[in-house]
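Prompt: For my understanding, could you write out one protein's sequence and backbone structure tokens?
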Amino acid sequence: MQLTNKVALVTGAGSGIAKAAAKLFAKEGAKVAALGRTKEELEETVAQIESDNGEAIPLIADISKPEEMQQAIQQIADKWGRLDIVFANAGINGVWAPIDELTPEEWDKTININLKGTFLTVKYAVPHLKKQGGSIIITSSVNGTRIFSNSGATAYSCSKAAQVAFTKMVALELAKHRIRVNVICPGAIETSIDENTQRRDLEDIKEPVEFPEGKIPLTDGKPGTSEQVAQLVLFLASDASSHITGTPIWIDGGESLLKA
């Protein structure tokens, strides 16, 4: 098992990519702190890990709230005495709307959760990671890094582009502490995040583009799965990627090479 005796924090662990990663981390021997805002979803994740003989705890916290994140990470230290891996995955798509219709409040909500939330997750985890080194993996997106044709996704794309810059800055700062920091950029993945996207009045600003054979070349249009992304996250969390830091990795079946 690749993560024996490691302790991992996974944010957004109630569903999707983070849930798949939490379960895979546990299967590979890690103790998992599953963090999110929905108690029932987190308890289900923990129950599934425990039913497979893994060890996990649920942590209820809003990643955009400093006090909640500080307390949650302290709970990990109190429970297991260490923290080795941080998968900062939690985020929202938020409101996608024309720039003149997007409200300051909608902008702030997306930036606060996606970007400030990443900052707070890493900030409060770092003192624990510094004790023995470790790995931080941040979930960005193809949007804002290679793809800019999803009109109206301005706040989301800006938050995702900023996460890549954040990763590179922090990777260099933390290298002397043997803490690696990398960022993944998924394309179309089968998760529930699209159900939480509020799209408004996009018809007039979207540029018409057709992909007759599908917009994901590797799979003829079929989206990837959370489990495929979890395998990438496991690689970056493990010693198999011990010389990789400050690196964005796109996992999209070639989608962002076709669709810019």
The two ends are 39 Å apart (CA to CA).
